[in-house]
């Protein structure tokens, strides 16, 4: 006699997530944090010069930059939709891919900012940032307040979305990260994980090399623009790459570990490595603002390698989640 098993994916969907005060605060914070960026992008698309100083290369923006502003405005507006999906009753009925793809992308784009921006504020507060003379010597691009407002907004968005997504995912897919990583994945997945870990180790070493002032693989213009603040950004990308590599190995080696830790490492590291590799590669292939020096061929290959490494780690993550669903 056979019985039909109950699909555990839909078991948590019996009722909507609890709308506690904490979730309402996080939702409000995420929505409020989108306002400055959306307002700036809308203003620039309509021809405003707010935040753009005289002499800025942005004043000579062509079609590529206009399209980029429109695309990034739409990306930030998608945060509003994500907040609704994560907090409204109908959000639990959203097809999984329609939620996980944008959340994965948001995780990837925001994580290096969450790591790097506070670090840059810290080194600036400690007096290691560029001095007034050095800052004045740079070509004007945007008023300094623009970066502070925008990146503060991104930081709030990242923290708030994480605070909303984790309980949502626990309710909807909690069984997939409960328990331990106790079984090895099939051999082909192990090969992919080894390739991802090797690429992540190489990328981590390279980003740390740049963080400490190395110039190999950088264009002359970017090498000359090195500061302690840019070093913090490189270190943040190194952390993300190394997290992706470590997470993939932990997922495939079958060690008795709490599943949520390697899952979290791989999700965050793979997302950041893939998203920023793709973002930087696309930006390097387009026209440079103000006729600046294009990234070197070596730099473009590094961005491509970053994207590929993130994609390999993502494949391992996906295979692991599929195996958990099947079991």
TrEMBL record:
Name this protein carries in UniProt:
Aromatic ring-opening dioxygenase LigA
Its keywords, alphabetically, are: Membrane, Transmembrane, Transmembrane helix
The answer to whether the entry has keyword Kinase is no
Organism, scientific name: Streptomyces yangpuensis
Highest taxon, organism lineage:
Bacteria
UniProt keyword Lipid metabolism present = no
Regions that span the bilayer = 25-44, 64-85, 97-117, 145-169, 190-212, 232-251, 263-282, 302-322
């Amino acid at each position: 006699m056979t019985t039909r098993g109950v699909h555990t994916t839909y078991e948590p969907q019996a009722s909507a997530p609890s709308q506690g005060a904490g979730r309402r605060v996080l939702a409000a914070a995420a929505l409020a944090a989108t306002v400055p960026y959306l307002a700036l992008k809308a203003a620039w698309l309509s021809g405003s010069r707010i935040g753009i100083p005289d002499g800025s290369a942005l004043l000579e923006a062509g079609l590529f930059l206009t399209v980029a502003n429109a695309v990034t405005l739409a990306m930030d507006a998608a945060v509003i939709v994500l907040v609704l999906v994560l907090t409204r009753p109908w959000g639990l009925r959203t097809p999984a891919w329609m939620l996980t793809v944008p959340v994965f992308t948001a995780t990837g784009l925001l994580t290096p900012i969450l790591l790097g921006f506070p670090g840059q504020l810290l080194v600036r507060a400690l007096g290691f940032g560029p001095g007034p003379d050095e800052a004045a010597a740079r070509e004007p691009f945007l008023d300094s307040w623009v970066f502070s407002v925008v990146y503060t907004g991104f930081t709030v968005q990242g923290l708030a979305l994480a605070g909303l997504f984790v309980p949502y995912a626990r309710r909807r897919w909690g069984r997939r990260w409960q328990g331990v990583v106790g079984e090895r994945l099939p051999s082909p997945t192990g090969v992919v994980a080894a390739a991802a870990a090797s690429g992540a180790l190489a990328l981590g070493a390279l980003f740390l090399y740049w963080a400490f002032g190395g110039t190999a693989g950088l264009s002359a213009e970017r090498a000359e623009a090195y500061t302690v603040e840019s070093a913090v950004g490189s270190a943040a990308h190194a952390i993300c790459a190394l997290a992706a590599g470590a997470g993939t190995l932990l997922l495939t080696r079958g060690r008795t570990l709490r599943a949520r830790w390697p899952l979290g490492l791989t999700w965050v590291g793979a997302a950041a490595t893939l998203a920023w590799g793709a973002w930087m590669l696309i930006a390097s292939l387009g026209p440079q603002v103000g006729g600046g020096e294009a990234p070197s061929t070596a730099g473009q290959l590094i961005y491509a390698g970053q994207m590929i490494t993130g994609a390999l780690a993502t494949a391992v993550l996906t295979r692991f989640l599929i195996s958990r669903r099947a079991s």
